Amino acid sequence: MSIRWRITTIIAVFTLIAIIVSNVLLAYNLRHKDIAEAKRDSLKTAELIRFSLLSTMIRTGDYDEIAATLQQLQAGRNFRFRMVRHHHVIKQHGIKRNEIPRDDLERQALEDGKVKQVQDSVNSLRIIYPFITDKRCGKCHVDLEGKPVPPGTVNGLAVIKFDLTERQKASEKVINSMMLSLTAVVFIFAMLSLLMVHRGVIKPIQDISAAVMGLQNDNFEINLKDYPTRELRIMAGEVNRTAKILSERKHEHERMIEEERQRNIELKKFVQSRASALGLEVGSEIRPIIGRLTSTFDKADKAEMMATAFKYVTYGESKLVLPTDPELIPAVSVYLGELMQSSSETLKRRTIELALDEALSNAIYHGNMEISSSLKEDDFEKFGEEAMRRMGEEPYRSRRVVVRYEFNRRGAKFIIKDEGAGFDWKKYLSKADSDGDMVHGRGLMIIRALASKLQFNESGNQVTITFDLEGDNRA
Question: pTM score, two decimals?
Fold first, then answer.
């Protein structure tokens, strides 16, 4: 899956989750808020009904007038009303319209005189409102013993049942409308976020990816823009620099091939002219020779050819005379290591390069320049400054390092001699054997670990390093 579709999928999933969660929370909160408001409104209506009925009963006590009052109150209000009488009221006035409690909640309200609210169903809310006597009620109502009821006695209940169907339908319309609006807002926000992510992240990454793929296909004409995001800017910059380097190398390679081709043309002309001068015709016998002389090989082909030819080398030797210049150390180490490139695997070549690098460093820095190794450990920056200074001073400047080497398919020997005063190599080697954590002399330990044999002359300004190209190297 591409990063574009992956990010799009992630945003789509989170958007869907956000829509579902937000809509559920919105609907839940609005419905609970609506129920709470319905309860408050119903309680106020119940208080009004109770007050109106109580006033009518105190004033007239006529049931027909009470019924007329209820009809007036029900106009515009969707509720049903029922009276409940306490035992002493039933004993005094009897039961007129089945005014008895129907459940435990109503019986409890008759005993404790507290207002009760209960939602019998989703669309039905019941409020139980007690009629509690005051000092005026004792004139008309008596208890079970026939005495006037004292103030605070529950005479009965007003049970008012409200139908919330229409109100909830209206609320559902509002809730659905708000949910739809919220969904639209979240969706638009997700689309804008996706657009911003596409422009700010996906598109740049796609451009960088296309550029990298282009590098694999030798397309180095790349110019990625400077993106505002730090990470993208770093990646684009690295790709641009890589493309520039590869382009320069490609042009340099093409230039070298062209130069080689021109030299081959000149060589071909020269061979043909010499053949003509000798009275030879450039026929089928001469033409293959000219073709081989003028063949062009790239670096990999030459390395492979050298490796093939080296298999048949029985012996080789040479000598290098180097000035006191530390910058030559890596170049000479690699050069000498490359002489072994076919007789040993890469690991052994790198081993030879590393050991020779250390030996040449000792010869130039500590031998010809006579800089103490302690200075290198204590202050590396000062060590470098001192080396630069002594490169231009006598007698250090005129000193040379002589490198002799000889090799065959079984092994290689390198003799490195400087023109310094030498050093007590026996002391260093004995200390290295007894104290593996010593600071100075680690270079010798490295060479001993990498070479198969390590020898010094008596003064210590010449070292002979031997490598076994067939077995393990361990001095």
Answer: 0.41
